[in-house]
Amino acid sequence: MTTWSFRATVTALALTALTACDDGQGGAFLGGLGSGPNVALSQATMAFGAVTLVPPSGFCIDRRSLKQRFALMARCDKLGAPSAAADAPLGIITVSFSAIADGAELPTPAHTAQALSLQDVSSLQETENSVVFRANGPSPIEGMASQHWRANTRVGDQLMGLALYGPEDGRAVSHEGRDILLKLIAGSEPAS
To answer: What is the DSSP secondary-structure string of 67-121?
Structure first.
């Protein structure tokens, strides 16, 4: 039963991310960075009110990407808020949510890698409620490295799946990327 929960949860995360891209929230969003009106948000209520998503310092949520179970974040200056960008690295963070049963274990990096066709899982860091790791896999936009950071974390009754992509050899794909995801988790957990 626990194994089924893992597979169902990882599959839900994969479908959520793919649905968002199919609805024009992936590549179209990335092509529009830096143009148009300010679309930067400093937080958003997600998963039908179950989670308050709080970006790490220097990142903002793109208002255009928001769905109840999906959001995209980028460095704030790319979303029309230059003063909020601080010293954040160039990168894109995707966030998806799915319900997780009370007591169910988080998907392991191996489960996530299998569900999302990822390879070369490394740099694993686990806590009681989260797992962060680096892996290789398809990037959402040309110019982003295939190596990126992933995280799965429990926030209340929701499983939050995170991915951080950055340019090849950029700061977001270095070990700094793990800290960015950990700060996102640390900011969102107490706010929810």
So the answer is: BTTEEEEEEGGGGT-GGG-TTPPS-EEEEEEEE--TTPPPPPHHHHHHHHT-EEE
Q: What is the mean pLDDT of the chain?
A: 83
Q: Where are the domains of the chain?
A: 2-191
pLDDT tier at 54, thresholds 50, 70, 90: very high
CA-to-CA distance for 120 and 35, rounded, in angstroms?
Answer: 35
| Domain with residues 2-191, CATH architecture | 3-Layer(aba) Sandwich (3.40)
Distance of CA 15 to the CA centre of its chain: 14
pLDDT in tens, 146-191: 999 999 999 999 999 999 999 999 999 999 999 999 999 999 987 7
CB burial string 142-155: b at 16+ within 10 A, e below? eebbebbbbbbbbb
Token pair of 137 as six digits: 């896999």
Q: Indicate the burial class of 171 (C-beta count within 10 angstroms; 0-12, 13-18, 19 or more).
A: middle
Residue 136 pLDDT more than 50? yes
Contact criterion met (CB below 8 Å) for 47 and 58: no
